[in-house]
Amino acid sequence: xxxxxxxxxxxxxxxxxxxxxxxDLVTVSARQGLEAVDILRRGAAVAVGPVLHDDDRGTxxxxxxxxTAACWDVPGSTCTETDGRGLRLAPEPPVRGADWLLPPGEExxxxxxxxxxxxxxDEAARLLRAADDxx
Length: 135
Description:
disordered N terminus; 2 helices; alpha+beta
Protein backbone atom coordinates (compact mmCIF):
# COMPACT_ATOMS: atom_id res chain seq x y z
CA UNK A 1 0.00 0.00 0.00
CA UNK A 2 1.13 3.54 -0.70
CA UNK A 3 0.17 6.85 0.86
CA UNK A 4 0.08 10.25 -0.73
CA UNK A 5 0.23 13.83 0.46
CA UNK A 6 0.57 15.27 -3.05
CA UNK A 7 -0.07 18.89 -3.94
CA UNK A 8 -0.49 18.02 -7.63
CA UNK A 9 -3.82 18.90 -9.23
CA UNK A 10 -6.04 15.87 -9.31
CA UNK A 11 -7.77 14.23 -12.20
CA UNK A 12 -10.98 12.39 -11.47
CA UNK A 13 -10.43 9.21 -9.49
CA UNK A 14 -10.78 6.01 -11.45
CA UNK A 15 -14.09 4.22 -11.31
CA UNK A 16 -14.51 0.95 -9.43
CA UNK A 17 -13.70 -2.26 -11.22
CA UNK A 18 -16.18 -4.96 -12.13
CA UNK A 19 -16.98 -5.75 -8.49
CA UNK A 20 -17.63 -2.09 -7.74
CA UNK A 21 -15.41 -2.21 -4.65
CA UNK A 22 -12.11 -0.69 -5.78
CA UNK A 23 -11.38 2.07 -3.32
CA ASP A 24 -8.76 3.96 -1.38
CA LEU A 25 -8.94 4.79 2.32
CA VAL A 26 -8.71 8.30 3.82
CA THR A 27 -7.72 8.13 7.50
CA VAL A 28 -8.19 11.02 9.96
CA SER A 29 -8.40 11.48 13.71
CA ALA A 30 -11.67 10.19 15.13
CA ARG A 31 -12.57 13.66 16.43
CA GLN A 32 -12.22 15.35 13.04
CA GLY A 33 -13.71 12.36 11.23
CA LEU A 34 -16.84 12.24 13.38
CA GLU A 35 -17.39 15.94 12.78
CA ALA A 36 -16.92 15.41 9.03
CA VAL A 37 -19.45 12.55 9.03
CA ASP A 38 -21.99 14.89 10.66
CA ILE A 39 -21.26 17.58 8.07
CA LEU A 40 -21.59 15.13 5.18
CA ARG A 41 -24.83 13.63 6.50
CA ARG A 42 -26.39 17.09 6.95
CA GLY A 43 -25.70 17.99 3.31
CA ALA A 44 -28.77 18.00 1.09
CA ALA A 45 -27.27 16.13 -1.87
CA VAL A 46 -24.29 14.46 -0.29
CA ALA A 47 -24.19 10.89 0.90
CA VAL A 48 -21.32 9.35 2.79
CA GLY A 49 -19.85 5.97 1.95
CA PRO A 50 -18.76 3.31 4.43
CA VAL A 51 -16.69 4.58 7.36
CA LEU A 52 -14.40 2.48 9.57
CA HIS A 53 -13.76 3.36 13.21
CA ASP A 54 -10.52 2.15 14.76
CA ASP A 55 -10.93 2.82 18.46
CA ASP A 56 -7.45 1.52 19.31
CA ARG A 57 -5.80 4.10 17.07
CA GLY A 58 -8.45 6.80 17.52
CA THR A 59 -9.05 7.12 13.77
CA UNK A 60 -11.83 7.04 11.21
CA UNK A 61 -11.34 5.70 7.70
CA UNK A 62 -13.48 6.90 4.78
CA UNK A 63 -13.72 4.67 1.71
CA UNK A 64 -13.17 6.84 -1.37
CA UNK A 65 -12.93 5.94 -5.08
CA UNK A 66 -9.75 4.25 -6.28
CA UNK A 67 -7.23 6.79 -7.54
CA THR A 68 -7.96 9.37 -4.83
CA ALA A 69 -4.63 8.73 -3.07
CA ALA A 70 -2.72 9.98 -6.12
CA CYS A 71 -3.81 13.54 -5.40
CA TRP A 72 -4.88 13.63 -1.76
CA ASP A 73 -3.43 16.68 0.01
CA VAL A 74 -5.55 17.37 3.11
CA PRO A 75 -3.37 18.17 6.15
CA GLY A 76 -3.95 15.89 9.12
CA SER A 77 -5.12 13.00 6.96
CA THR A 78 -3.62 10.20 4.94
CA CYS A 79 -5.02 8.50 1.85
CA THR A 80 -3.89 4.93 1.27
CA GLU A 81 -4.09 3.12 -2.04
CA THR A 82 -5.39 -0.40 -1.75
CA ASP A 83 -4.42 -1.46 -5.29
CA GLY A 84 -7.37 -3.83 -5.06
CA ARG A 85 -5.52 -5.95 -2.49
CA GLY A 86 -7.76 -7.39 0.17
CA LEU A 87 -10.24 -4.56 0.71
CA ARG A 88 -13.74 -5.94 0.42
CA LEU A 89 -17.02 -4.34 1.35
CA ALA A 90 -18.40 -7.01 3.62
CA PRO A 91 -20.32 -6.98 6.88
CA GLU A 92 -17.10 -7.65 8.80
CA PRO A 93 -14.57 -4.78 8.79
CA PRO A 94 -11.50 -5.30 6.58
CA VAL A 95 -9.15 -4.07 9.33
CA ARG A 96 -8.49 -5.99 12.54
CA GLY A 97 -9.49 -4.00 15.63
CA ALA A 98 -11.85 -1.73 13.70
CA ASP A 99 -15.59 -1.68 13.33
CA TRP A 100 -17.94 -0.03 10.87
CA LEU A 101 -19.26 3.35 11.95
CA LEU A 102 -21.30 3.38 8.73
CA PRO A 103 -21.33 -0.12 7.27
CA PRO A 104 -21.57 -0.83 3.56
CA GLY A 105 -25.13 -1.34 2.51
CA GLU A 106 -28.39 0.53 2.47
CA GLU A 107 -27.35 3.61 4.50
CA UNK A 108 -24.03 4.18 2.75
CA UNK A 109 -23.01 4.87 -0.84
CA UNK A 110 -20.23 2.75 -2.32
CA UNK A 111 -17.67 5.46 -1.53
CA UNK A 112 -17.54 9.03 -0.26
CA UNK A 113 -16.99 11.70 -2.90
CA UNK A 114 -13.39 12.91 -2.29
CA UNK A 115 -14.19 16.54 -3.16
CA UNK A 116 -17.04 16.62 -0.67
CA UNK A 117 -14.93 14.79 1.93
CA UNK A 118 -12.12 17.35 1.51
CA UNK A 119 -14.61 20.18 2.10
CA UNK A 120 -16.15 18.43 5.11
CA UNK A 121 -12.72 17.75 6.66
CA ASP A 122 -11.69 21.38 6.15
CA GLU A 123 -14.92 22.60 7.76
CA ALA A 124 -14.54 20.10 10.61
CA ALA A 125 -10.98 21.34 11.27
CA ARG A 126 -12.19 24.95 11.40
CA LEU A 127 -15.04 24.07 13.79
CA LEU A 128 -12.76 22.10 16.08
CA ARG A 129 -10.16 24.90 16.14
CA ALA A 130 -12.89 27.41 17.05
CA ALA A 131 -14.19 25.11 19.80
CA ASP A 132 -10.67 24.61 21.18
CA ASP A 133 -10.04 28.37 21.13
CA UNK A 134 -13.14 28.93 23.28
CA UNK A 135 -11.80 26.76 26.11
